[in-house]
Amino acid sequence: MKTILILGAGTGGIITAREISRYSGNEEDITLVKILVFEKEEKSVFSPSLPWLMVGDRKPKQLYENIKKLNAAGLEVINGEIEEVDPKNISVKVNGKEYKGDYMVVSLGVEQVIDHNLDRFGYNFFTLEGATNFNEKLENFSGGKIAVLVSSLPFKSPAAPYEAAMLIEDYVRRHDLSNNTEVSIYTPEKGPMEFAGKEMSDELQALLKGKGIHYFPDHQVTAVTENILKFSNNSSHEYDLLAFTPTHRSPAVIRNSPLAGEFGWVDVNRNTMETNFTDVYAIGDITDIPLDTGISLPKIGVFARHQAEIVAHNIGRKMDHKVPDQTFTGEGEYFIEYGKGLASQAEVHLYDPSGHDAKMKDPEHLGHWSKWWAEKYWFFKNF
After folding, report:
1. Which residues contact 351 (CB under 8 A, 6 or more apart)?
2. Model confidence at 356: pLDDT above 60
3. Are 180 and 206 contained in the same domain?
4. Is residue 359 domain-resident?
5. What are phi and psi of 4, to 5 degrees?
6. I want to staple 288 with a disulfide (CB 3.0 to 4.6 A). Which of 265, 317, 326, 379 is the partner?
7. CA 162/CA 182 separation, integer angstroms
8. Is residue 292's pLDDT more than 80?
9. Is residue 236 domain-shared with residue 311, that is, in the same domain?
10. Residues 196, 285: one domain?
11. pLDDT at residue 354, rounded to an integer
């Protein structure tokens, strides 16, 4: 009987586990393939909806499920901290116990680190707690300067700060705070989502401008005090309410393993997601995939989903003694919330060196409902 080790139960890990389970032929009393999912958290949070939580459009309990609900025939979730990863022998050590497999899929995402004491002064909206606490402050906000800060690069979900700012502006307008409130974004990026090309970046910046959101690119934060943000260009800006993205880095267990590349992320074949070790794959935010444009593939959930489906399919083919026949092509579609019940559909083809296929539609109700349905379907399908 084959054993598959899946490290991490984020978006990619869950889809990999579910897809392999579907292919496996496992039934209630028959286990043909053993699938072990290792996850340190007890809650599985649907991160794309955190900007909705920030503005009160969701309650915290709507955005998570207990990770143990993934358990199925032949599929077991093991809660605990991964202490060691050995890709050569396809094994992991968790809670002092070693587990060995025939295939390994690394989907550990990013480690969030708080620099500049940001958590003393603001709210990390990339967490359930941070988004919830920001909303509590927003509901009691009577006016002033609201700042959305990207603290460092790279960061996952590159549309999230822009969604957050636009939804906050929508909240401010609906609560008659527009006359005495400013919403601003500060980011080290040269332009919003510049990986998609100048045209899409300019379109998103135009949406921000149309909503009256102040946009400050090329602003790398260097220090934070109460009500003041300081940047490497020697500028400083006041704020009254702060939401921020944390520093993102590869988890320590990967940085200290043979899987780590130059910057700590996992290097993979960009088409098959295979690492340098036989039958060991990595997917999602934990990877670093250089593009022909000289930048890396952005850390977006839609890519993790596609990569997970492809890896699960190809592992299934290998277990059936067939040749893997699917590849990841760098294509993805996602939705950027605008407010007013509207969202823009964005489509990218990032393995196309010309980048000319990147497209973003004007905000529309269909985009918003598509994102709403994606949230509902995620929980229905997986839990």
Report:
1. 270, 291, 292, 329, 330, 331
2. no
3. yes
4. no
5. -110, 125
6. 265
7. 15
8. yes
9. no
10. no
11. 66
240/299 same-domain check: no
- Spatial neighbors of 257 by CB under 8 A, at least 6 apart, are 84, 85, 86, 87
Three-state SS letters, the chain: CEEEEEECCCHHHHHHHHHHHHHHCCECCECCEEEEEEECCCEEECHHHHHHHHCCCCCHHHHEEEHHHHCECCEEEEECCEEEEECCCCEEEECCEEEECCEEEECCCCEEECCCCHHHHCEECCCHHHHHHHHHHHHCCCCEEEEEEECCCCCCCCCHHHHHHHHHHHHHHHCCCHHHEEEEEECCCCCCCHHHCHHHHHHHHHHHHHCCCEEECCCCEEEEECCEEEECCCCEEECCEEEEECEEECCHHHHCCCCECCCCCEECCCCCCECCCCCEEECHHHEECECCCCCECCCCHHHHHHHHHHHHHHHHHHHCCCCCCCCCCCEEEEEEEEECCEEEEEEEECCCCCCCCCEECCCEHHHHHHHHHHHHHHHHHHC
Binning pLDDT at 50, 70 and 90, where does residue 219 land?
very high
The answer to whether residue 360 is domain-embedded is no
Residue 354 burial class via C-beta count within 10 angstroms: exposed 0-12, middle 13-18, buried 19 and up: exposed
Angle at 369 between CA 366 and CA 371, to 5 degrees: 110
Q: Does pLDDT of 355 surpass 60?
A: no
Name the percent of the chain lying above pLDDT 70. 99
What confidence tier does 357 reach under pLDDT thresholds 50, 70, 90? low
Instruction: Identify whether residues 117 and 216 lie together within a single domain.
Output: yes
pLDDT tens by residue, 252-274: 999 999 999 999 999 999 999 99
pLDDT tens column, 146-171:
999 999 999 999 999 999 999 999 99
In a shared domain, residues 232 and 310 = no
Spatial separation of the C-alpha atoms in residues 286 and 288, rounded to whole Å? 7
Is there a single domain that holds both residue 97 and residue 145? no
Q: How confident is the model at residue 352 (pLDDT cuts 50, 70, 90)?
A: confident
Domain membership flag for residue 348: no
For the entire predicted model, the pTM comes to 0.95
| Structural domain for 74, as ranges | 2-110+250-319
Alpha-carbon gap, residue 112 to 131, rounded angstroms? 15
- The reply to whether 238 and 117 lie within a common domain is yes
Average pLDDT, the chain: 95
